[in-house]
Amino acid sequence: xxxxxxxxxxxxxxxxxxxxxxxxxxxxxxxxxxxxxxxxxxxxxxxxxxxxxxxxxxxxxxxxxxxxxxxxxxxxxxxxxxxxxxxxxxxxxxxxxxxxxxxxxxxxxxxxxxxxxxxxxxxxxxxxxxxxxxxxxxxxxxxxxxxxxxxxxxxxxxxxxxxxxxxxxxxxxxxxxxxxxxxxxxxxxxxxxxxxxxxxxxxxxxxxxxxxxxxxxxxxxxxxxxxxxxxxxxxxxxxxxxxxxxxxxxxxxxxxxxxxxxxxxxx
Length: 267
Fold this sequence. Notes:
Number of domains: 1
Distance between the termini: 31 Å
Shape: globular
Structural class: alpha/beta
Number of strands: 8
């Protein structure tokens, strides 16, 4: 195992509670709502086989199982896999690396990569993960991959009153280099431009790739309004605008997360 992978496992085991991430702040709740809506658009009907690669502690996997999907989850972090296996409803789970999946060719109707791409800082590794997803998805099936927007960090800090000289300097660096500095809080990560994640998906062999902005252009307004008298109205408006502008190219990059979806062609 490489050092980056070891560092990521340590981060999620010792420093961060992934199982609590989607229920707290407005950005996270928007991410959950809109990701579930988009998966409803992308995935085939209940009963389909879905592989959730890098599925964390299984929040999306459990929701899909409850909706009637047959889901298997793999994740790099052993503690995540243990939580998935212990949760309800039960989900089949295994420790594995997105770059070398232990699954057979054409085994799934759809594959989700809702985390691996933004922890693989080298393009070659991201392409390996995407090609593995393509390999294990049947022809005509969908691959759905998430990325963190290049601009998410600075927008987040500005909306929550935390933008300072250091984070502003980091924002300038990220304009040309999407690699996160793990010394300033988050672990090893890569932040994408929308056109970049689309290009990586296409290079990995997916066709008809469309990139959506998950939280939409008003997520920062929802963050800024949190705790105030307008928080509910602003949050509802943010959900509405995320739907309206979901794949609008001029606004996709303003979301905190990007979601790319494409089809696996005939072999």
